[in-house]
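Reproducibility note. Readers wishing to regenerate the assembly model reported in the main text can use the exact inputs given here. Chain order matters: entities are listed in the order in which they were concatenated for prediction.
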Amino acid sequence: MAKGKITFKDIEQTVNVPAGTRVIEVSEKIGAGIIYGCREGDCGTCMMEVTEGWNNLTEPSVLEEKVLKENMAGRHNRLACQAQILGDCTVKPA
Amino acid sequence: MNHMVDVSAHREAVEIADDVYWIGALDPTLRTFDIILSTANGTTYNSYLIKGSEGVAIIDTVKENFSSEFFARLESEVSYDQIKVIVLNHLEPDHTGALPELMRRAPQAQLYISQRATSMLKALLKPNTDTFEYTTVNTNDTVSLGDRTLRFLHTPYLHWPDTQCTYLEEENILFSGDVFGCHYCDKRLFNDRVGDFRFSFDYYYAHIMRPFKKHVMDALKLIEPLKIRQIAPTHGPILRERPRRYITHYRELSTSSLSREVGGQSDKSLIIFYMSSYGNTARMAEAINSGASEVEGVRVSQYDLEGGETDPFVDLIEEADAMLFGSPTINGDAVKPVWDLLSSLAVVNLKGKIGGAFGSYGWSGEAVSMIEDRMRGLKMNIPKKGLRVKLIPTDQELDECRDFGQLIAEVLVGRSQENQVIEFADLA
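Running the prediction on these inputs yields the following C-alpha cells for the assembly.
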C-alpha cells in the first residue's frame, strides 16, 4: 500500500500513514495544534499552512477553494479536514 | 439634563447629526436575548440612515418583527427610491430581519458586506439567493454618497467572523455594529440622557466580546486612530458624550491581567483541577503538580473543584495556557462539577490551549477519555493521552503521574519532543 509521511511542525512529530488518509484523522489522534470546527469543509477553522510537500496532498476541490478564498487564505493554506495525504509533507497551524 | 427625547412616543426618524438619523426599534419587554443573555430592561435594534448629495445609505436593519417601526421611521425621512446603499455591519438576524423586505422595496440599492459575510448572506436570503447582488468590502474601502463618504473597517470576530464597522468620515461617526453595544432599552436614546447602563455595557462585553479579546485588540488598532464624535452601535445607547472612554474601556477589558498583576510575564500558566472521592485522584493531582513544577517557566496552580465556584474558575481558565482535569469515574461518567465547569466556557477563548485528563477509577474508568473528547470539542490540544489508575495509585503509577505532568509542562514551554516516526496504525 502506498504510504506518506506527514510531519506536524508545531509538535515536531512525524506519522507514517496510508496514502489517502485525511490530515484531520492524523492530527487529532496525535494532538497537533490544528483546530477543527465543522469538520466538513465549510467553516474554514482548520486552515493549515503546508510548509513542504504541497503536491503530496490531494488537489483542493472547488468547494475547498471557495472556502479558502472566503477565509482569505494564503498561497500555502489548505483545510486539514479536506486535504488527503499522498506522500511526504509538512504542515502547521495557519 | 434634557429628558425631552422620547423615541417611544412616535415612529419618526431621530436626527443624531446633520442628515444622519436613528431609524431603529425599541424592544423593552425582551428578557432573554439569544438564549444566553439576560436583558433586564430589554434592548434596542439600532439602524441608521445617512443622507448624501447623491443618495441615501441605510446602515443595518432590525429584527424582523420590528420591521414596521423601522420602515415607518425610514419613510418619515426618505422614499425608497432614494436609497443607494445598504450596509450590513453584521448579519445576525436581529440586524438583518428587515433586509429582505427592504431590498424588495429598494431594489436599486447596492448591498455592502464584509468578505466573510457572503455565505451568511446567502443563508439568510435563501431560497432567493440568486436574485440579490452584493459588493464585498475590506478595510479602507469606501463608498461615496456624493458629499459624504463611508469607510469600512474589517473587524472580524466582533463577535462573528463577518463583523465590520463603518465610519462616516465627514461627521466622524463610527457605526460600530455590536461593538460598543449593550442590551439596554431607553427611549432617551443617547448616553448622556439614558439611565445608568454601565452594568449592561460590561455584561454585554463579558458575554459577547470576551471570547474574542485578541480580535478586539486588533480592531482597536483600526478604531483608535480615528477622530470620533459619536459611536453608533446596533444595540443600546448612542455614545455621543465622551465616546472615546468606551474605546479605552474596551482596551482595559481586553487586556490580560495575570502577567500585569502577578508578574513573571514569560511564565506559562498550568492549572490542575480535580475532584476526588477517596483521595486517589487527589494524590494523582499532587504527583502531576510536582512533575510539572520541575519545568522552568511554568507556573502551576491546583484547585479542588469541590471547594470553588464556577465563575472564578472560568476567569482562571481564560488566562491559563494549559489545564488538566482530574475526575474519578462514577457510574461510567466524570463527576458533575467537572462537567459544570467544562460547560461554562463559552465566554472565553480556549482555542489552542493545552489540555489533559487523569483520574482514579473503580470498575470502568471512562471519565478520562470523556473529558478529553470534551476538550477536543472545545478546540483544545490534547498532546498526551490521559492517565487512568485503578483505585489506589502505586508508587510506580505516581511516577507516571509525575512524568505526565512534566511532559505537559515541557510541551507548554515548547521544549521540542524527539521527532520519531510513528505508525498511523499505532495511534490510539
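We highlight two features of this model. Residues 62-70 of chain A form the longest helix (9 residues). The two ends of chain A are 30 Å apart (CA to CA).
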